[in-house]
Structure formats: structure tokens, C-alpha cells
């Protein structure tokens, strides 16, 4: 359990097009980080819009999505704020994707199926590193 | 009698003199042109051996036989004359030389004609055999061609099935990843339990949803496996069930197209190839989806109607994409005809669909425009 007090006032944007996956992840994130402000979007376009309005510090996003995929969205977000930390959730484990992911501005990639231990460790590391 | 060979030699006829019935029959068997026989030699034995020698002669053959009778009243041997198996001419002695020569020449002429007929018949028979052999080899070649044709068609069919499958796989990766949510469900249960927030309701809900996802995954795998397995024999199937399976295989690759299924009250059964039929439905539905997407139709809708009309099953698939241009509506079933770019369409989808329905299942596949769009009609 991380010291979640540092998360007070922090915001995270979570973008995932598949409703059930989104619901389950939101349930887990809210249970694990009750103080974190969680914004959710169902595709890249919506995510970019939300980012512009709310300016969260952390973005967690699926890659393959309709309308605007995670790679395009990440590029758009980086154009607004080059400092933002973006974690990509991907089922692709091929190198070609991972190299373009870095170019597109992904700070980190976590492979699907998501393991909460790995995911929460990354989120904790980001917020703790960010706050001290 | 003894002077006859000499007389005949003078008119150019070769003859053999036989003194016993056995000798006579042996010569006949060798193929004499005509036979002169004295009444003295006629006996039941002679008749029997001649019958043996001539018994199996072909239909064209009738041996000319001249019987030389004694002068005066008929002897008891004359009855044998009537039993001889041939073209019998009785002549009473004494015979004038010219009469005998005339009879012999007439007999030989008629025998020669018989052999001409025989030759012609043989030629005809040979020609017939040749024709028969040619017909047989033609039939064989035709059969091989048909087999090659069927094989090529099956290859094409398998290719188009795989192409459809490949395209679907690209689209439905989300659908196939859905069962991965089971991993999230389990981790959520674990987490709520650790925080002592787990209730019976939330646990039951998680378990039933996880089982649902797994059942759905299992069904999807079955759908695909059944669809891809080749079928050699026709079976009887429920059209509505196949329509539902095709829609289930397509799943998310319908990409937001509203699909309405108008089901019949009673099952509509069809005899044919279930997977090939499903392939036709998938082809038509994917075409509808593509055109609805390309034309950016506001509320993309496909209506599939299953019904029985008399002895036939009728499935109509109607979209609201505006229809097929009149210039090309007659060409949509042609091989390699496509309105899509080379990366999208091979142009064999509807061609194969028509072949499946019309050639393999004796049905019909047609298309017409409605006021809203295109309507494909499958009758089997």
C-alpha cells in the first residue's frame, strides 16, 4: 500500500474504449487510490479533450481505439504538455510498436493482460518520485 | 461327280473333292465359298456335322449349298436336304453342265456379296468401337476437368473464407480480448477481499460474469472452428441458426451497424453446406458494412429476414446504404469485379457466394435495389 496522501489533489486520466474493462479498472483504481481524482474517456479524441480541460499529471491509456488511437492521442497530449507522464497499456509486445511508442511520447508501456501489482507499482513510483 | 472339279476349273473356280462327311465339314469350317453335295453323302451324321460347322456363323452368313439329287422319285435321304443349315438349291440329275456352272457362279457371287457385307459390318463395328473409345476418353477428360474445376473452386472458396476470416480477426481483436477481463475481475475480488470489502453479492456477481465471459469465449472459438472446417457432405440445417452464427462470428466487426433479425415462427430447414451458407451470409453482411461505412450513412442498418415461401427458404439481407448503381448491378456477381480498392476487395466474394448457392446448393442468389439500399436474396 502506497502512502496515498501524496495523491491528494492529483489527477489521472484513464482512456479505454472497452466499457467493461474500463469499469473494472476504474473500480480497482478507485479502491486502491481513493484520493486520486480519476478522469475517464472512451477514445483518444475524448481523452485529448479531457486532458486539455483538466490537465492531469498522469495519463493511462489503451493503444488501439476507434476515432483516435492511443498513439495519436499521446502525440497530441505531448504537444500540449511535454512533461506529462503517459503509461500505455498494450497487448502488442513487438519491438516495432515499443520503439514507435517511445517516439510518440509514451513514458512507459505495460503489457496486457494488466497485472495490478505492476500497474500500481508504476503509478506509485510516478507519484512518489514526482512529489519528493 | 468326279468330272465337276474339272468343269469348274475351266470357268476359274477352284474346288476340292471330299469323300466323307468329316472331310466335307473340315473344308466348310476352313471357309468354302459354296458346297455341292451328292444325295449319297446326305445322312443324319452329315447334317449334324454341318450344323456344328455352320452353327455359330454370324448373321450375315448363309452358306450356299447345292444338292445333287438322283433322277426319279425322291429317296428317303431327300428329307435331309431340308435340314441342311444353308441356302439350299436342289438340282436333279442328270445336270447339264451350263446349269451347274450357272448355279455355282450364282452361289459364289452371293457368297462374295455376303463377305462384302461382312467387311462393311466389320468396318462399321470398328468405327463404332473407335467412337465408343473416343467418347469414353472424352467423358474421362470431362470428368477430370470437372474435378479440377471443383478443386479450384474449393481452393478459391477456402481462400475467400480465409480472407474473410483474416479481415474479421483484425476487427474483432477486442472481442477476443474480452475474456481477459476475467483477470481484472479476479484481481478486483482479491483486492476487495484484502480490504475486507468483499460481499457475497459482489463475489457472486464477479463469478457469474467471469463464467459468462469464458462461455462466450468458448462459443466464439467453436463458431470459428466450425466455420473453417471443410465439409464434404450436405446436411440439413436451420437457416435462422446459421444466420445467428454468422452474426456472432462477425461480432464487433459489424462496427456499429444496427442489425435486425426478422425470424420465422417455425424453423426453416435447408439441405446443403452449412459453413458455405454461413460464408455467403458473412460475405454479404461484410459488403453491407463496408458500403455503409464508406458512404458514411447516419444510422447504418441491416435487416435480415428469414422466411419460408412454399418449399423454399428465403433469406433477404437489406441495407440502407442507397443501393447499387444501375450500371454495375448486373456485374456484381462477376469474378474479380470489385468496387473496393485492391487492398480491400478481391472481387471473388459475391462470385463465390453465387457459386455456393446456385451450383452447390441448387438455389438462387440475386440482388435488387429497394428505396433504401441493396437487398440480396438467397433462395434455397
Question: How would you portray this structure in words?
Answer:
The complex is a heterodimer of chains A (about 130) and B (about 375). Chain A is an alpha/beta fold and about 130 residues long. Chain A is about 45% helix and about 20% strand. Chain A has 5 helices and 5 strands, in the order βαβαβαβαβα. A 5-stranded parallel sheet of chain A has the order 2-1-3-4-5, sandwiched between helices. In chain A, β1 (about 10-15), α1 and β2 form a beta-alpha-beta unit. The longest helix of chain A is centred in the last third of the chain and has 16 residues, at about 115-130. The two termini of chain A are about 20 Å apart. The mean pLDDT of chain A is about 85. Chain B has about 375 residues and is an alpha/beta fold. Chain B is about 55% helix and about 15% strand. Chain B has helices at about 5-10, 20-30, 45-55, 80-85, 95-170, 175, 180-195, 200-230, 240-250, 275-295, 350-360, and strands spanning about 35-40, 65-70, 85-90, 235-240, 260, 270, 300-310, 310-320, 365-370, 375-380. In chain B, the strands form 3 sheets. Chain B has a 5-stranded mixed sheet. Chain B has a 3-stranded parallel sheet with strand order 1-2-3. In chain B, β7 (about 300-310) and β8 form a beta hairpin. In chain B, α2 runs parallel beside α3, α7 packs antiparallel against α8 (about 200-230) and α9 crosses α10 (about 275-295). Classes of the chains: A alpha/beta (about 130), B alpha/beta (about 375). The interface between A and B is medium-sized, with 17 and 15 residues.
Key phrases:
heterodimer; A: 132 residues; alpha/beta; 5-stranded parallel beta sheet; 47% helix; B: 380 residues; 11 helices; rod-shaped
- Stretches of chain A where pLDDT is under 50 for at least 5 consecutive residues are none
Overall geometry of chain B: rod-shaped
The largest sheet of chain A, given as strand count, sense and whether it forms a barrel, is: 5 strands, parallel
Name the largest protein-protein interface in this structure.
Answer: A-B, 17 and 15 residues
Number of strands of chain A: 5
Average pLDDT, all residues of chain A:
86
Number of helical regions of chain B: 11
- Radius of gyration of chain A from CA coordinates: 14 Å
Q: Roughly what is the average pLDDT of chain B, rounded to an integer?
A: 84
Pairing-aware structural class of the strands and helices of chain B? alpha/beta
Amino acid at each position: 500500500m502506497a502512502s496515498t496522501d501524496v495523491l491528494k489533489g492529483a489527477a489521472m486520466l484513464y482512456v479505454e474504449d472497452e466499457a467493461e474493462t474500463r469499469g473494472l479498472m476504474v473500480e480497482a483504481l478507485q479502491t486502491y487510490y481513493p484520493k486520486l481524482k480519476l478522469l475517464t474517456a472512451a477514445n483518444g479524441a475524448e481523452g485529448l479533450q479531457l486532458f486539455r480541460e483538466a490537465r492531469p499529471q498522469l495519463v493511462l491509456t489503451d493503444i488501439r481505439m476507434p476515432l483516435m488511437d492511443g498513439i495519436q492521442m499521446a502525440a497530441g497530449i505531448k504537444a500540449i504538455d511535454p512533461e506529462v507522464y503517459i503509461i500505455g497499456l498494450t497487448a502488442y509486445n513487438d519491438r516495432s510498436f515499443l520503439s514507435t511508442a517511445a517516439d510518440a511520447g509514451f513514458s512507459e508501456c505495460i503489457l496486457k493482460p494488466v497485472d495490478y501489482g505492476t500497474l500500481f507499482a508504476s503509478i506509485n513510483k510516478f507519484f512518489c518520485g514526482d512529489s519528493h | 461327280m468326279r468330272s465337276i472339279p474339272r468343269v469348274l476349273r475351266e470357268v476359274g473356280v477352284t474346288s476340292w473333292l471330299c469323300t466323307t462327311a468329316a472331310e466335307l465339314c473340315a473344308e466348310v469350317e476352313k471357309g468354302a465359298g459354296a458346297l455341292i453335295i451328292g444325295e449319297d453323302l446326305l445322312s443324319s451324321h452329315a447334317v449334324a456335322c454341318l450344323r456344328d460347322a455352320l452353327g455359330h456363323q454370324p448373321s450375315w452368313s448363309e452358306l450356299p449349298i447345292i444338292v445333287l439329287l438322283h433322277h426319279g422319285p425322291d429317296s428317303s435321304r431327300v428329307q435331309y436336304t431340308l435340314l441342311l443349315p444353308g441356302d439350299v438349291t436342289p438340282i436333279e440329275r442328270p445336270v447339264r453342265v451350263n446349269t451347274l456352272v450357272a448355279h455355282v457362279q450364282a452361289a459364289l457371287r452371293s457368297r462374295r456379296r455376303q463377305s462384302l457385307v461382312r467387311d462393311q459390318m466389320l468396318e462399321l463395328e470398328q468405327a463404332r468401337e473407335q467412337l465408343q473409345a473416343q467418347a469414353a476418353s472424352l467423358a474421362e477428360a470431362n470428368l477430370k476437368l470437372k474435378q479440377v474445376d471443383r478443386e479450384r473452386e474449393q481452393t478459391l472458396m477456402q481462400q475467400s473464407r480465409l480472407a474473410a476470416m483474416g479481415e474479421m480477426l483484425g476487427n474483432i481483436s477486442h472481442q477476443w480480448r474480452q475474456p481477459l477481463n476475467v483477470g481484472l475481475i479476479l484481481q478486483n475480488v482479491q483486492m476487495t477481499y484484502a480490504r475486507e470489502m468483499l460481499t457475497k453479492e459482489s463475489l457472486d456477481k464477479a463469478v457469474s460474469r467471469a463464467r459468462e465471459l469464458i462461455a462466450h469465449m468458448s462459443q466464439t472459438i467453436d463458431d470459428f472452428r466450425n466455420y473453417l472446417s471443410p465439409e464434404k457432405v450436405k446436411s440439413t440445417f436451420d437457416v435462422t441458426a446459421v444466420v445467428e452464427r454468422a452474426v456472432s462470428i462477425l461480432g464487433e466487426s459489424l462496427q456499429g451497424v444496427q442489425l435486425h433479425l426478422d425470424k420465422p415462427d417455425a424453423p426453416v430447414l435447408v439441405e446443403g453446406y452449412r459453413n458455405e451458407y454461413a460464408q455467403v451470409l458473412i460475405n454479404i453482411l461484410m459488403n453491407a458494412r463496408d458500403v455503409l461505412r464508406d458512404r458514411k450513412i447516419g444510422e447504418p442498418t441491416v435487416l435480415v429476414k428469414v422466411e419460408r415461401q412454399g418449399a423454399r427458404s428465403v433469406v433477404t439481407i437489406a441495407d440502407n446504404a442507397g443501393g447499387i448503381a444501375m450500371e454495375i448491378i448486373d456485374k456484381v456477381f462477376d469474378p474479380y469485379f470489385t468496387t473496393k480498392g485492391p487492398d480491400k476487395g478481391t472481387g471473388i466474394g459475391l462470385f463465390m457466394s453465387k457459386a455456393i448457392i446456385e451450383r452447390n446448393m441448387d438455389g438462387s442468389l440475386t440482388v435488387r435495389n429497394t428505396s433504401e439500399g441493396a437487398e440480396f436474396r438467397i433462395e434455397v
